[in-house]
TrEMBL record:
InterPro entries: MetI-like, MetI-like_sf. CDD domains: TM_PBP2 (cd06261). Signal peptide: none annotated. Residues 68-282 form the ABC transmembrane type-1 domain. It is a multi-pass membrane protein. This is ABC transmembrane type-1 domain-containing protein. SUPFAM superfamilies: MetI-like (SSF161098). It is found in: Cell membrane. Belongs to the binding-protein-dependent transport system permease family. The chain crosses the membrane at residues 7-32, 70-93, 105-125, 157-179, 266-286. Keywords: Cell membrane, Membrane, Transmembrane, Transmembrane helix, Transport. PROSITE patterns: ABC_TM1 (PS50928). It comes from Gordoniibacillus kamchatkensis.
Amino acid sequence: MVSEGKFALLLLLPTIVLLAGLLLYPFIYSIYLCFVNLNLTKPWLGTQFVGLANFTTTLMDPEFWSSLKITALFSGFSVAGSLAIGLIAALVLNQKLMFRGLFRSLLLIPWAIPLVIVGMIWKLILHPNYGVLNALLMQTGIIHKNIAWLTEPGWSFFMLILSELWRSFPFVALLYLAALQTIPKDLYEAAKVDGAGTLHNFRHITLPFLQPATLVLLVLRTIDAFRAFDLIFALTKGGPANKTEIVGLYLYKQGFMFTKFGESAAGSYLVTLLILLLVFVYVKLFKLKDIQ
């Protein structure tokens, strides 16, 4: 007679094996790649153990640090901008408006569209000859000649930020909107009786209650920004002159274009450690704010 626990484990076994194959094996293999030299262009050399050489080579590569700097700027602007725009959108949609449900549904459209499709949409909008943006600015007299938004170094990075904000702020607004629903209405009514204004309520009631949601959003958006790839690959592929090559594109090129899989894997784990450090800083800052 088989016990219920063993029978349940037997039923779960196919799922466990599948998850191990899809998650555990790639994870272990990626760690293995960090310490070996896997050269597919010269298979007769075999796989050589190189220790920490992949990490040191990556850290000594100026292109890695350049891509990391671009990623930090991209993450900083996109995370801060999406949180600010998302909070404003959530505050507006939290009010009693006509067709509020419709607006909330429409808000999710940019976030629900696949990233590659978002990239194609923005590539059409920013096309130098028949793009909507150039046509609109020409009609309004703001510009007098077409601008190559994605091939000029001064504009390409800005347009990446703009397209990323358009894609990401609905997710932020959705989480902030859910957090706003949990704030007790009695607090606002008591503050109104005491003569508090809108700014006072926002600073002393709304923002403190939104701190947990803000911490979660900071973590999620930072991770999302550091692993950004699809949108930028679809728009600029890191150009012009590597001015928009974030670390995800750098690691992609190292692994799948130059077949430096060990260095690509090592760089990935270096970025992971950086993200973990940022998350630790976020948590510490919010704890200090709570103490104050």
